[in-house]
Design brief:
The protein is an alpha/beta fold. The protein is built from four helices and eight strands; from the N terminus they run βαβαβββαβββα. The N and C termini lie close together (about 10 Å).
Amino acid sequence: MPEKQYLSWQQIEAMVAELAQPLRGQAFDAMLAVTRGGLVPAGLIAYHLGIRNILVAAVQFYTGVGRRAETPTFLQFPADPFLHGKSVLVVDDIWDSGKTISAVKGRVLAAGGRPIIAVLHYKPAASLFVDTPDHYVESTDAWIVYPWEPASESEE
């Protein structure tokens, strides 16, 4: 069992500020927040960068408790015209296996968009992909527990 790392809101605020720093000055047409974990960091980064056009990608891999599907189900995703020819900042909390973010990136590319991936945490040892996030704050092998997660989920 990997070590659990519990983060405070103050740590999240510092990480978001660090993640936003190299993104300043880049022109993004939209931000795509990956639910559920990416909603909070995306909202905070949007304030740092002055982004108002925030889209949502709701992706589900689990089909039941402990049962993971091979391919994602997109519960919600922006229509192609919202992404075509656009620079899209894709934000999630963590790149673990990379399946979710890679599926989202693939959809943005298929729509003709230019995705830039930003996450708070990157787990290179768990990643199933050669790709890496374009921007991340911390590389880790720990089980990350974010302050917005209910206590019952952090105990799984």
